[in-house]
């Protein structure tokens, strides 16, 4: 299980970006975070063409499928959506990892039992 943002675990930081200029302000170790895909598909294409690892916040299965097809490294979603997306991601061998946005450590066990790829604490996103 992948965990981003837990104080005991060294991990990358997600940076929300809304333009190519925003991307230029991120650190090399940061992961670009786009949201929502309908508004950021041109940035997703830019990331894919320039081999920039990125994540996308999604709320639907369709957006998750499109994000994976556009080369996203991470699909970030709420718990309910993750439990719907993860089986599809496994069936179609997504390259993207499904991450649940969490607020406390109590959620880790539930997400792990559900077979979700990982979790990202809100503290790991700026």
Write the layout of secondary structure elements.
Elements: E1 2-4, E2 14-16, H1 20-24, E3 31-34, H2 37-49, E4 54-57, H3 61-69, E5 74-77, H4 79-91, E6 97-102, H5 106-113, E7 118-121
Parallel strand pairs: 1-7, 2-3, 3-4, 4-5, 5-6, 6-7
Provide a descriptive summary of the structure in words:
- It is a single chain.
- The protein is built from 5 helices and 7 strands, in the order E-E-H-E-H-E-H-E-H-E-H-E.
- The longest helix has 13 residues, at 37-49.
- The chain has one domain (2-124): TIM Barrel, CATH 3.20.20.
- By secondary structure, the chain is α/β, with parallel strands linked by helices.
- Strands 1-7-6-5-4-3-2 form a 7-stranded parallel beta sheet, covered by helices on one side.
Tell me briefly what this model is.
The chain has helices spanning 20-24, 37-49, 61-69, 79-91, 106-113, and strands spanning 2-4, 14-16, 31-34, 54-57, 74-77, 97-102, 118-121. By secondary structure, the protein is an alpha/beta fold.
Our estimate of the beta-strand percent is: 15-25%
Tell me the count of domains.
1
CATH architecture: Alpha-Beta Barrel
Unreliable spans: none
- Biggest pleated sheet: 7 strands, parallel
Q: Report, as a whole number of angstroms, the end-to-end distance.
A: 22 Å
At the fold tier of CATH, the topology name is TIM Barrel
Q: Quickly name the level 1 CATH class.
A: Alpha Beta
Provide the residue-averaged pLDDT: 95
- Which superfamily, in CATH terms, is the homologous superfamily? Aldolase class I
For the biggest β-sheet, the strand order reads 1-7-6-5-4-3-2
Total strand segments: 7
